[in-house]
Amino acid sequence: MIVIALLGVLLALAAPSMREMIEVRRLRAINAQLVTDLHLARTEAIARRTYGRIDFNLDPALAMTCYTIYTAVDSFLGCNCSLGPGAACAGNPGAVEIRTVQVPKSSKVLLSIPPQRPLTWAMGFEPAMGSLVNLIVDTDPAALNKFKVDTKIDADRSMRIEVGQSGRPTVCAPAGSRIDLPSCNP
Q: Which candidate, 4, 13, 66, 130, has a CA 20 to 30 Å from the CA of 165?
């Protein structure tokens, strides 16, 4: 009975750290998928010789956060990832959906766009070199030098992807994050 009681105590102590480990692994996996998808969007823009775009839907009323990678012939076309894969660009005949990813809030991992500029919920890559570009729906006339998107569980467990003007994403830890990554530049 003493051995069983000791095993029960050890399991009770190990359970929270196991849950933490699983959540952080899920965070890293979702972040890695987004980095891969950013590379995909850039590659597709170059290969298809059209602007590659990514629209994020971070509506707090939804049971998910999501994004759609697509190409579009008209700058004013957009896709809605909350409609699901295969349906995100429905109703926009000039938009070609490449990939839609939905991250349920039940996973405890959220996508978020840190404050940058107005309407930075979308970004694009130009077809010649895959450089980061403004989308016409962005009302700020300044060039988009960097686009940031966070994957996070909470402030202590967050990762940031920064896409620079070259179109290449890098991963860093925003201020306050305990994730073992290089710190983001201010």
A: 66
Q: Give residue 85's Cα distance to chain centre.
A: 16
- Any domain includes 1: no
Which residues are within 8 A (CB) of 29 and not within 5 positions of it... i.e. 6 or more apart? none
In a domain? residue 185? no
Provide the domain limits for residue 71.
Answer: 20-172
Query: Is 105 part of a structural domain of the chain?
Result: yes
pLDDT at 140: 45
Residues 144 and 164: their CA atoms lie apart, in Å, by: 9
Q: What is the mean pLDDT of residues 136-152?
A: 68
Q: How far is CA 72 from CA 50, 75, 127, in A?
A: 7, 7, 12
Say how far residue 43 (Cα) sits from the centre of its chain. Answer: 17
Per residue in 49-89, pLDDT (tens digit) is: 888 889 888 888 889 999 999 988 765 677 889 999 999 99
| Number of domains within the chain | 1
pLDDT tens digits along 78-127 = 788 999 999 999 888 888 999 999 999 999 998 988 775 544 478 888 88
CA–chain centroid gap for 76, Å, is: 22
In DSSP terms, 152 is beta-bridged to: 110, 158
Which CATH number do you get for residue 74? 3.55.40.10
84: region left, alpha or beta (phi > 0 left; psi from -120 to 50 alpha): left
